Amino acid sequence: MNSKTKIKKNLITNLIIFILFLSLSEIGCTKQNENKDIPKSLIQSLKSKDDGVRKKTAAILGESGNKKAVEPLIEALKDEDYRVRQEVVKALGKLKDERAVKPLIDKLADTNWVVQGSAAWALGEIGNSQAINALISALSHKHPFVRENAAQSLGKLKSTNAIKPLIKLFADEDSHVQQVATDAISQIGNPATKSLINALKSKDILVRWHAGEALGNIGDKKAIEYLLPLLNEEDRNLRLNIAFALGKLDNKQGIDILINSLKDEDEEVKTYAALALGEIGNKNAVDNLILLLNDTNINIKAQAIVALGNIKDSCAIKHLILNLQDKSQTIQQLSSTALAKIGTPAVQPLIVALYDGDETLRKTITNTLIKIGTTAIIPLTDTLNNSLEAVTKADEGINSQSQSSVDIMQKHKQESAQWYIGIALGTLGKDNEDKQVINSLITALKSKNWYARGGSAIGLGKMEDKRAVNPLIEVLKNDINKTVRITAIESLAKIDGENKHTIKILADAANNDKDEEVRIFAKGIIKKLSNK
């Protein structure tokens, strides 16, 4: 096939696929549409000469949630192309209809391992116990993709018959299969405890390792007495893994070993111990984890931050705020996420830091406050209101006495912080019915501080509340600061850009504003609105 023919074929295929997407909109993808008739054209596309069309059709039917697609899809399991068969199998898994169980069990013996593995996954999605024996047999398949999906599905089915076969996979040649088997047997839960305790006696270190991990996941405390002797194993990594399992079972000895491992000279040991303690969530580890925030190894530092976020102890807040300024963006982002997990106790310290930091830090703090959510609204609103009063008093002080350059710089920092408070409040207040947020932002439009006016204008735009339209129009007409007028233009377009009166106001700014930059910005906004 030459290149022109190939391009033509691709164009035709893409056109057909586009038509198929239109068919999807006809049948819908909600619960109410699960028995709606499917367009004949869509069913016929399962028999198209183009394998790409057949594959895409199967995918569309799977996403539709329509039970009337099951029989045509079962028929399509005979497709000659394995990629189409795989998509058909996945679609049947998504539809979760028990009519597909027997045909999918048959597909575990398909000629292609990709289809076999996908069938194993789909049977887990449907969740019918008829598939258990076939899935247990699939655990012995030569390809890891099939073993992995069979193990995962047996975990979903919580099959007690699968316990011993899954334990055998702890020593699988593929490490991913080992882990999936561990997770699967953890899902089965307490019925697996006895077999896992027996597996702790295995001569194979991998079996002991994963048996210990699974016992920790299951949480049956009667496993503690059988895990403790393994703390004397020669292999240090196994000892750590057993300590992790004991920590999950709230065993002090295991937790103490992990805490002491935070001081180990081996970087991998420290990283693993931090990860384990973070998952366990034990507050006794906080002080030692805070010390790791000074570690020069970024992986250790990152894992300590994640752990502190999971533990949610307020003692870590000030240290995490300092790391918002780290030269590594990864550390900044992880610290922000950790503070967001700690939540409400972090709000006030973050607001204080907002007043002291540089612009980059302020943006990071603003995003962190937004991540924390609605519990930050009241402290932010109080801070904005109190700041407006403080600025007025500071201005009175300037008139009555001379101030040093340090005082002026500090005043500038306090004023510019209000820009970010306005943005944070607007973002958080969008879905909040409390009038306090919008009232505070509208009041701030009259502040003597242009940062407060500009940030509040942006915040009102984010809220998209029509009550802000007239106050923003007043700002656009009368504010002396061009940046504030520009923010008012942008927010008016967001809130009320379809209103002819608002467009007329924006057009007036585009033609008559005294500042060229404002006129240009207004013209650009009007052009965008006209193109919608």
Integer-rounded radius of gyration: 31 Å
Q: Which runs of at least 5 residues are low in confidence (pLDDT < 50)?
A: 390-410
Principal-axes geometry comes out as flat
Question: Helical amount among residues, as a percent range?
Answer: over 70%
Mean pLDDT: 89
Proportion of residues in extended strands: under 5%
* DSSP helical segment count: 31
N→C terminal distance: 42 Å
Largest beta-sheet details: none
The number of distinct β-strands equals: 0
Structural class: mainly alpha
Structural features, described:
The model is unreliable at 390-410 (pLDDT under 50). The chain has 532 residues and is mainly alpha-helical. Helix 21 runs parallel beside helix 23. It is built from 31 helices and no strands.
Write the layout of secondary structure elements.
Blueprint: H1 3-27, H2 40-44, H3 51-64, H4 70-76, H5 82-95, H6 101-107, H7 113-126, H8 132-138, H9 144-157, H10 163-168, H11 175-188, H12 193-199, H13 205-218, H14 224-227, H15 236-248, H16 252-261, H17 267-280, H18 286-291, H19 298-311, H20 317-322, H21 329-342, H22 347-356, H23 359-372, H24 377-400, H25 405-429, H26 435-444, H27 450-463, H28 469-478, H29 482-496, H30 500-512, H31 516-531
Helix pairs in contact: 1-3, 3-5, 4-5, 5-7, 6-7, 7-9, 8-9, 9-11, 11-13, 12-13, 13-15, 15-16, 15-17, 16-17, 17-19, 19-21, 21-23, 22-23, 22-25, 23-25, 24-25, 24-26, 25-27, 26-27, 27-29, 28-29, 29-31, 30-31
List keywords for this structure.
31 helices, mainly alpha, 532 residues
Question: In summary, what is this structure?
Answer:
The chain is an all-alpha fold and 532 residues long.
